[in-house]
Design a protein that fits this description.
Elements (H helix, E strand, L loop, with lengths): L14 H12 L2 H13 L3 H29 L3 H12 L7 H32 L8 H12 L2 H20 L2 H29 L3 H9 L8 H14 L6 H7 L7 H29 L10 H12 L3 H35 L3 H22 L13 H28 L2 H8 L4 H27 L3
Helix pairs in contact: 1-8, 1-11, 1-12, 1-14, 2-10, 2-12, 3-4, 3-9, 3-10, 3-11, 3-12, 3-16, 3-17, 3-18, 4-5, 5-7, 5-14, 5-15, 5-16, 6-13, 7-14, 7-15, 8-12, 8-14, 9-12, 10-16, 10-18, 11-14, 12-13, 13-14, 14-15, 15-16, 16-18
The structure holds tryptophan.
Amino acid sequence: MMDEKKSQHGEWSSRFAFILAATGSAVGLGNIWKFPYITGENGGGAFVLVYLLCVLLIGIPLMMAETLLGRRSKENPIHTMEILTKEAGADKNWHYLGWLGVAAGFLILSYYSVIAGWASAYVVKAFFGSFSGANPSEIKAIFDNFVASPMQLIFWHSLFMLATMLIVVRGIEKGFEKSVRFLLPWLFALMILMVGYAMTTDGYFKGLNFLFRPDFSKLTADSILVAMGQAFFSLSLGMGSIMVYGAYLPKDVSITKASMIIAGADTIIALLAGIIIFPIVFSNGLHPNSGPGLVFETLPIAFGNMFGGWLVGILFFVALVFAALSSSIALIEPAVAWLIENKGFTREKACLWSGLVAWALGFATIFSFNIWANVKLFERNLFELIDYLTANLMLPIGGFCIAIFAGWIMHQEHSKQELDCPDNLSYKIWQFLVRYIAPAAVFLVFLNVVGVL
Ligand code: TRP
């Protein structure tokens, strides 16, 4: 029965389309904006190593788990959990997992859109040549002045959210696929070009050293949690985004291969961002731990100095905005799909309401950079709090539950059938990772942070 069901939102036109869209959701601000600045804040190499381990041992198996849950039910995450718990004869409370995901999606989108708004504003700044000939302190001043103005941030945030809503309104086939198809190769090519620039700076090897030579004395319990949270965040795991995409996935696609390709591409883009940014940091006497502004304070230096930098700067920020768009549509889609399927909303109305709620929540982040900069709870401003709550708590908790569900609750024949592993050994490896390694890792990292371990 289940096998013949198709999602009411249509299906991907091919395996390639699914990989593109899921990679589009994974690659975004998380790779280019967040990965470098948290790597900078957490001391470099050792943090990167922990991050890579998390991607390999937790991220990839969980991505497979999430995709298979979505494909099995062909529904939105909340409904998916309802259907699959029934199928497995499990406790009804599992469907709260879907709720957790929708809530995390809103919260993440609320600040994601603000930062994507920064990237959009930087397209215009690049176009008007604001960076050419500017020295590092002038570039920093451009950023500081920009984020000090709530009105400007509100404007760009609103514009970005509107764009997200317009794409989502058009539904998956038309809207999603087209926008990602051109973007990824383009982004990749630009980044390779910029690595070329980074190689010419005198901070190149210092940058690489910072990024790749682990100094374990810099690793704290909290930075391990941040590395794990970033693996979830960057791969779009733990909240049902990939589950929704899985729901649109045709039967004949290998979930195992697709997950590895997606995670590989995502990791490469993040590392490239680091390889570009840290040499610029060290060759200009900047500090790696300057926080969320890091990308916006470093890359423009390159654009102001490198050959063809004006054009590269414009193209790069445009690519970044598109990368952010292909992620923001994944963040909002679980809520939209749920409103349509369970609440009988039209697609238009569902997009409108989800977009408005996330937009309004975004003001908390906007004001964290200016008028509410000193409003702190648990030593964090509102933006940092939302980020911590979502990436470091909600996503790992969601991931933990997904691992338990796919590994222990769902019938083995079902997961085996969906994964369609080439041999029994690969299935066993996957099962071992989702049953033991992923849940235990999340659990131990949590214990470590609260100081029990
Ligand atoms: N992965 C995206 C990025 O790195 C952000 C994102 C999209 C996301 N969908 C998600 C994060 C779902 C968590 C969950 O930019």
